[in-house]
Amino acid sequence: MSQPPEFERYQGRSDPVPDDESSGIPQQIGAGVVVIGASAGGVEALQAVVAGLPADLRAVVLVVLHIPRQAPSALPGILDRAGKLPAVAAEHGIPAQPGTIYVAPADHHLLIRDGHLELSVGPTENGHRPAIDPLFRSAAVAFGAGAIGIVLSGARDDGAAGLTEIVKRGGQAVVQDPDEALHRSMPACALERVPSAHVLPAAKIGIVLGELVGEGAAPLRHNPVNPDLAVENEIAALGPMTTDEMRSARPSGFSCPSCHGVLFEVDNEPAPRYRCRVGHAWSPVSLVAEQSIRVEETLWMALRALEEKATMHLRLAEAAEQQERHRSASLYREHYEKWKAQATRLRELIGWVSSGAEESHNL
Fold first, then answer.
1. Fewer CB atoms < 10 Å away: N or C end of the chain?
2. Does residue 330 have an active-site annotation?
3. Preceding omega of 95 cis (within 30 degrees of 0)
């Protein structure tokens, strides 16, 4: 099959090689599912990708965009108008039809299993539901080499671990050029984890996908899966499993920002990930960013306590002055000044922590 000039120009990457865990997977020509993840700045990139998809695409297209949990998504309508393929909100249990774009609704993970869509309220991953990693893992399990994962503009690093699993099982990875993305963190993190990914501007991705998908591919029937990957897939679907059942999981000494339980470190080359017992999952960049938020929240609570303590001493001083208890009034004012000074120092620390958090988000 010939490849368009855009593909040859931007590819410049080695083809992915499945690891030993995926060595029994039938190798396929073409792809049956395209999974796309985006976050901040992702709507524009998604429109550009969808605009380039051919009308006769022989693969299912599944999209996760990070959105607030309580906000209805307008993305299906936006993407339906952007290109030649119909775009609809994903519904639980429906067959996944090739040539259709399905968009994850708010507050639900989108998964594909046995050729059908699943919506799940399983544990958040990287602070999101819907999250990108669960979708990507489900595509890796269901389609193996017949899966294509795409990471577009976004903050933090959701999607990088899931893209790794797609490539491990013989699938292909495409990443929006970080220099073009409105927010480069997600595509840059994906490239760090999957250096074999095809790097393309968003407007070229849809064109190349037509070539990569080819004649399509069916879900796998003989489907050996890494046991840890199978557990993670089940956790995302709200199945009766915990992180205890993952072979590689070991206590990390960190706590989960979502539920405050112990985080377990999970092997995931080239960088570890973290899951708590009930399944909240964190990739390194997302965990660091969330820890920064929790530190700042704790400091604000401490500042509130200091300000209240200072104010209490001021009121006691004023009351003592009205009663002409001058020695007590002087002591209360002295304590007031000390607590106000500590509050000033804490405000400076909050400013420093907040600046450091912004820098870590841009790494």
1. N
2. no
3. no
Global pTM value: 0.85
Is residue 92 annotated as a catalytic residue, yes or no? no
Cis peptide before 224 (omega within 30 of 0): no
What are the residue boundaries of the structural domains of the chain, listed by start?
A: 5-213, 286-361
Tens of pLDDT along 319-352?
A: 999 999 999 999 999 999 999 999 999 999 999 9
What residue spans of the chain are helical by DSSP H? 5-10, 42-51, 75-82, 132-143, 160-168, 185-193, 202-213, 227-236, 284-322, 326-361
Q: Which of 66, 108, 280, 313 is catalytic?
A: 66
Q: Pick the more confident residue, 329 or 14.
A: 329
Choose the catalytic residue: 22, 108, 109, 158.
Answer: 158
Pairing of strands 262-266, 273-276: antiparallel
Class at the top of the CATH hierarchy for domain 5-213: alpha beta
> Which residue is catalytic, options 39, 120, 153, 258?
39
153 catalytically annotated: no
Answer positive or negative: Cα dihedral of 343, 345, 349, 352. Answer: positive
* DSSP letter string, 256-307: -TTT--EEEEE--TTS-EEEETT--EE-HHHHHHHHHHHHHHHHHHHHHHHH
